[in-house]
Structure formats: structure tokens, C-alpha cells
Amino acid sequence: xxxxxxxxxICGSGAAGETLAIELARRGVSFLLIDKAPHPFVGSRGKGxxxxxxxxxxxxxxxxxxxxxxxxxxxxxxxxGDGPVDTxxxxxxxxxxxxxxxxxxxxxxxxxxxxRERLAELGHAPHYDHELVGFAxxxxxVSARILxxxxxxxxxxxxxxxxxxGSSFVRKSLGVPFDGVTLGVRAVVADVIAEGVSFDAWHRWxxxxxxIMLCPLYGTEMFQLQAPVPFDVDVDxxxxxxxxxxxxxxxxxxxxxxxxxxxSAYEMNARLAGTYQVGRVLLTGDAAHVHPPTGGQGLNxxxxxxxxxxxxxxxxxxxxxxxxxxxxxxxxxPVAEAVLGLSKRLLEAAKSGDTxxxxxxxxxxxxxxxxxxxxxxxxxTTGVLAGHRAPDAPVTGAxxxxxxxxSLFRGTHWTLIGYDVPAGDAPAxxxxxxxxxxxxRGDIADTGGHVRDGYGLVSGQWVLVRxxxxxxxxxxxxxxxxxxxxxHLNITAAASPRQDMIPVTDGASR
Length: 510
Hints:
Shape: globular
Structural class: alpha+beta
Distance between the termini: 40 Å
Strand content: 25-35%
């Protein structure tokens, strides 16, 4: 299109903005990733990486570096009148369909660093000290006014995405409501070098408004200090001030804070944007929702927002109907609403000292069964349904090499799997869809029956999996798949080349 500088402007280079940039970069979509800050975020704030986000990071090609940057959560050591008591927060181990079951503890600045490294591998980088100060849109494009170190410039794009946090300039400029509540809790969070506590546990003293916690930040030499504080006092966030707070809350004078690399005093809020899209401008991450930190849901929800939005933006820019973008809000806003409720419940429990966690925080059970992209079969009531997360499973290639469904899903394509289908009984090849069959002369074998059991399949059924790892349809009719792809994505079967277009070499004649 004429008059376009880039296809997408992403305002905000936190975890959501970086995830979206990776998704666009690996699909060849031009974009500009900007942030008004002079440098990357340096704090540990969103340190929990939930199992579903780990699956996303595997697809993005960063999971091993993320894991190497942190570790599993340490046991929580609660100091009581009878002495310290250790409690380990553990879920069951990995299974064939859920390879990641444990939350990871990785400081946010390390997570974002790994995402930037992946973006650099794809040939891109954020532009810091670039502030969005205004924008206007019409039916065809968005014009954004950006202040840069070299002066102001106007950039024209087909879409603008606000990933610029809870105080989002993009959301405020659109006039989108950000309804919710202030939760009546003010807290301090700080990254500190501390003496007098071991690095093998998450230390907690006190309850309610007198709590204080020191959590080791694996991959660094620091602890994250967390403590509720009153609303009506100025908090001294220096090493001396935080040492005094530790002594007051713990009754110990052997725990010393030597240095502070980052600190913040903030009020906890639970808020949700009234809409995620106004014309050609969309919101993602904290610009669309903010949560209390309990349960480690905020960063994870933001990453998964961007993961959902990225492939849809790229598809529309590649010819899919623009209505595909409406499914972004239809799918992600209810998730944010549910996560807000979960975070608030966990916050109330934490006030009384209950920090237990269950499967709810893993985000493995989140899905989109009510999405316009979920092609439900009313006859199918068991097994994996349209809108559900697509399970993993070990399989074996026809050449005898073991692999996994997640390995087959990895990338920017859709995946179609036929279970126990006759040889040659597959839909025609098409751009952006990888087809695998299990059965006579199939290219993969269902090692151990895990595909059958994990998906609840019977002979002759096909499973269509979206690029973000959710099931679009389960059907016994391949024509249903053809119609689905043509309707939602304008993807049609590849036509056979005309005979007169086949090149002729070596003097051969037609």
C-alpha cells in the first residue's frame, strides 16, 4: 500500500511488545518497536513464568535460555514463634500432554533480555527514547507522531498496537475506559543485595500489613524484597531505609540490605479496558488489563495476549479478512477478566498468610471455546474440543526418529493431523498449513497411543491446530477444513502448475 512506512507500530517494549515483535518478525511483517524509556526495564517485577507461557516460549525459540536464566520456585520459609517452617509449592511432574507443569522464577529483566536476544536473531531491536506523542487514523492507516533523539517524525502504518503499560498513552488517547478498583493495598518491591539470609528459600515474616518477604532471584545475586506499606507515609527505598524496614518487621538485626538496584512503591489495582480495539489501533498486555501480583498472572497474560494477536495481525496483512482481528478481543478479554478475579482472590488469601497455589495459576486450562474461530461439532462431547489448548504427545517419524507434536507445531503455520486415515487421504496442500497423518503409510506414528488418548480421537478424524497452539476444529470431513481455512484466512488449496509453465531443459521439447 502506498503511503505506508511500516505495517505495524508497537508502542512499548516490555514482554508483551517484544513477544508481538517476535511474532511479526518471524512472519516477515515490517514493524517499528518503540519505547519512551531510555533503556530496557531493569527490575524483577513479573518474575513468575507459568507453564502455558513456557509452552509459548518454546514455540518462540527461547524456552531453554529462559530456563537457564532462572529456576523453579524455592520452598517458602515462614518464620513463626516456634521457628522456621518450610513449605514447598509443587505441582505434579510433566506428562506426555503437558511437558511443563512447574512455574519458573525468572526476574522480568532477564525474561525481557532473552526475548530481545531472540528478536536480534531475527534482525530487529527496540528503539528506546522514542516517545509516541500523538496519532490519528482513517480507514486505511494510522499516522503516529514520535519524538526521537533526532527530533520529531511522523510514521505511517497500517496498525498501531499499544503495549505501553497500565498508564497507557495509547489507551488514554483513544478514550477507552479502564474500569476496576484500587484494592486498598500499597506495597514495596525492590531488588536488593542482602546479608543474613540464605539463597535456598523464599523467606517470609509476619502476616497481613506486617509481612515482609525476601525471595532469591535465581540468575542473579539479588533478592526481591516485598512488603505492604501504609498509604500515608513516605517510604525510604534506600539500602538504609529498607534495612530499617526489615529490622522492624523481622525483629532481627543480622539481616542487612547492602544495595538496591531497583525499587518501587505502588498501589495494587485490578482494571480492565472497555475494549481492546478501536479501528486500526489495538491494546495488549498491561495497557488492556492490570492485576495484583498475587499468583504471578500479569506478565503471563500479557505475553499470551501478544502471542494471540501476532499471528492474526500477520494473517490480515497477508490477505485474511479483517474480521479475523475481532476474535482477538473476543478471546483474550474474557481471559483477562477471569485472571483478575483469580488474582484478587489470591490477594485476599495472602493477607491471612495463605500462599498456596493450585492448577488455576498454570493457565494450562485457559481456552477459547466460545471464539468465532472455534468450529464446534455438536456431536463431539468428549476429548479435546474446538477452542481447547492442543496437547503435546510423543510421536515417531516414519524414519524412526522420535519427536513431539509440539515440535511439529513449532513455527508460524497451521497444523492438520489425520488420525488413522487411509494412505493418500489428505486435503490438498496449501500455503501455511502443515499436514501430518497417522495410519497406513502415515508420516508419523502414535507412539504409545498418546495422540489418541490426549485428543480423544477415533479413526478417520482430523484435528486442525492454530499457529498459537489451540484447536480450531475436530472433524471427520476434510472438506470442513478446506471451508474453514478459506472462510477465516482466505487460504485456498495450491493449484497445480499449468503444463505450459513447466520449465524445459536439456533440449527436451513438449
